[in-house]
Amino acid sequence: MGRDLFSVGVIVSVLLVGSGHIVLQRILREVNGKSPADQKISGLWVGTRLGVVLERHRKFFPHSGKRKSIGFLFGAGLCVFFLTFILAR
Q1: Which among 8, 49, 57, 68 is least surrounded, fewest beta carbons within 10 Å?
Q2: Using one digit for the tens of pLDDT, what is the confidence trace for 50-70?
Q3: Are 9 and 81 in contact (CB under 8 A)?
Q4: How many domains does the structure of the chain reveal?
Q5: CB neighbours of residue 42 within 10 Å
Q6: How would DSSP label each residue in the chain?
Q7: Closest CA to 43 of 57, 32, 33
Q8: Which one, of 87, 86, 27, lies nearest residue 60 by Cα?
Q9: Domain limits at 81?
Q10: What is the rounded distance in angstroms from the CA atom of residue 53 to the CA atom of residue 49?
Q11: CB proximity list for 66: less than 8 A, separation 6 or greater
Q12: pTM of the full predicted structure?
């Protein structure tokens, strides 16, 4: 039973974090669409420039709910993973 719980928990957490990454890529496209050519951020570096991307998104799209969904998806994914890890032992 422990292995099954762990497998399901890992799959759910990967799906949540992966969904958050998809939303982050959409945010990056929106930010790059409004940014000048010399301020565009590569998709490869989005993780290291996350604060800049989210701040620009807040400036360009102040009423967007995508930033909250990223926090929820990443946070829920991490919580599910750690709870699964603790409970499956």
Answers
A1: 68
A2: 999 999 999 999 999 999 999
A3: yes
A4: 1
A5: 10
A6: -HHHHHHHHHHHHHHHHHHHHHHHHHHHHHHHHHS-GGG---GGGTTTTHHHHHHHHHHH-TT-SHHHHHHHHHHHHHHHHHHHHHHT-
A7: 32
A8: 27
A9: 2-87
A10: 6
A11: 23, 26, 27, 57
A12: 0.86
